[in-house]
Amino acid sequence: PAPPPQTGWERLRELWRVDEQRRLPEETVNIVKSGFTGGLVGWLYGGLPAFREARKTFIERSHGELFQNRADAVQSAHRAGLRSFLRYGWRWSWRVAAFVTIFNTVSTGLSVYRNKTTISNFASAGAFTGALFRMNLGLSGLAGGFVFGAVFGIPVGALLVSLQQLTGETFQEKRNRERRELYERKLAEWQSRLSVTEDIGKTENEAQRALEMERAR
């Protein structure tokens, strides 16, 4: 069997490769999950205040309007709030989802490439993501986003590394252990099959020699 990847580029290529059971690596699945969760949190963060504000504004501006009954007025207020919830929730959702996805992709890529999980990986990922989101504001925005992202990444990285260390091993150490155990298991299976093949070959050779001796007699 092929040995575990030894270089950083080999580990990065394995990050986007499915295994024998057609499953993506756990790191890649976590990136997708975090992006989805970030999008959901962003939608709630931007949508709920917009819903309340739009509903309040509608009520304040609709005192002179006529409604069929109280239920019609309540439904109209809710519809106004729902429109704002969808509009502003989506604006926050895709931005937060993109930020979280890029941040986790870069930090995971650095951890996989360097084969270790450190706070500097998250700080670098935060600086890159912050600069990327603020680069449209020019050089000052780029620098501000770089600093903000780095400051954001340090506490996040410290928290994640601390949580991983509480389990006894970091995520990268766990991944290396699983790779090593899988390789050793495959190697043992290969050696077992090779031993069986050799035994079959010996048996066939002995039978062939016995047959030739019988023919000679």
Provide a descriptive summary of the structure in words.
This protein folds into three domains: 26-97, no CATH class; 116-168, no CATH class; 171-216. With 217 residues, it is mostly helical. The mean pLDDT is 82. The protein is built from six helices and no strands. The protein is 83% helix and 0% strand. This is Complex I assembly factor TIMMDC1, mitochondrial.
Q: Compute the number of strand runs.
A: 0
Number of helices: 6
Would you list the SSEs in sequence order as H and E?
A: HHHHHH
User: What number of domains?
Assistant: 3
Strand content: under 5%
Kindly provide the radius of gyration, computed on alpha-carbon positions and rounded to a whole number of angstroms: 30 Å
For the sheet with most strands, the description reads:
none
The termini sit apart by: 46 Å
Function: Chaperone protein involved in the assembly of the mitochondrial NADH:ubiquinone oxidoreductase complex (complex I). Participates in constructing the membrane arm of complex I.
Keywords: Membrane, Transmembrane, Transmembrane helix
Subcellular location: Membrane
Membrane topology: Multi-pass membrane protein
